[in-house]
């Protein structure tokens, strides 16, 4: 049952990411501008990236085009790696907007870790041996798997939010003492 869970988690991550980037268009646009991209590339990228995430995320459900989606997401992860490298070389704090405006997450080494985890998941989806996938599990099991993947994503978002809250709290406590 690992394959359907990873499939559902991958779908959840990329569909959620695409939706939140579209909903927080201005902050995602600011990320492009902060990275030094031209206004034309910014206009194209702020629409294209989330739409591609949504399309590839949903395409994982279709056996006929799933491999196209998985390979496409692999290339998207390589682009994200390059963008992370570019952001770290700029040497200023830039919000990555990986999940749109839901998290105040900045580019950093942790961004590489997240990309690496998604990369490993993608490789498992492409090369892993599986006889069962999300499209052919029984409906009740499918619901459990989808809800579990949504729960994992929500726990991740909550943990990151709490870590940012704690970091900000310590920062303000330190400033208050000086």
Radius of gyration: 18 Å
Contiguous uncertain segments of 5+ residues: none
Instruction: Measure the end-to-end span.
Output: 54 Å
Task: Calculate the mean pLDDT score and round it.
Answer: 91
User: Total strand count, please?
Assistant: 1
What kind of sheet is the major sheet? none
| N-to-C order of helices and strands | HHHHEHH
Strand content: under 5%
What's the number of domains? Answer: 1
Oligomer: single chain
Please count the helical segments.
6
Helix- and strand-based class? mainly alpha
Q: Kindly state the percentage of residues in helix.
A: over 70%
Net shape: globular
How would you describe the overall organization of this protein?
The chain crosses the membrane at residues 6-28, 40-61, 67-88, 109-126, 146-165. It is found in: Membrane. Keywords: Membrane, Transmembrane, Transmembrane helix. It comes from Paenibacillus sp. SYP-B3998. It is a multi-pass membrane protein. The protein has 178 residues and is mostly helical. It has one domain. It contains six helices and one strand, in the order ααααβαα. It has helices at residues 2-23, 25-34, 39-59, 66-90, 109-127, 139-177, and one strand at 98-101. It starts with a helix and ends with a helix. The mean pLDDT is 91.
């Amino acid at each position: 049952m690992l394959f359907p869970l990873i499939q559902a988690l991958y779908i959840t991550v990329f569909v959620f990411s695409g939706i939140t980037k579209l909903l927080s268009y201005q902050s995602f646009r600011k990320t492009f501008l902060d990275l030094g991209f031209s206004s034309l590339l910014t206009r194209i990228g702020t629409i294209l990236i989330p739409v591609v995430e949504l399309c590839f995320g949903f395409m994982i459900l279709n056996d006929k085009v799933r491999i196209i989606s998985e390979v496409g997401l692999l290339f998207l992860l390589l682009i994200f790696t390059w963008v992370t490298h570019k952001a770290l070389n700029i040497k200023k704090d830039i919000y990555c907007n990986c999940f749109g405006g839901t998290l105040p997450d900045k580019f950093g080494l942790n961004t590489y870790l997240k990309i690496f985890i998604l990369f490993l998941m993608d490789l498992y989806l492409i090369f892993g041996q599986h006889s069962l996938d999300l499209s052919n599990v029984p409906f009740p099991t499918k619901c459990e798997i989808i809800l579990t993947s949504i729960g994992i994503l929500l726990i991740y978002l909550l943990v990151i939010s709490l870590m940012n809250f704690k970091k900000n709290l310590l920062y303000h406590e330190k400033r208050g003492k000086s």
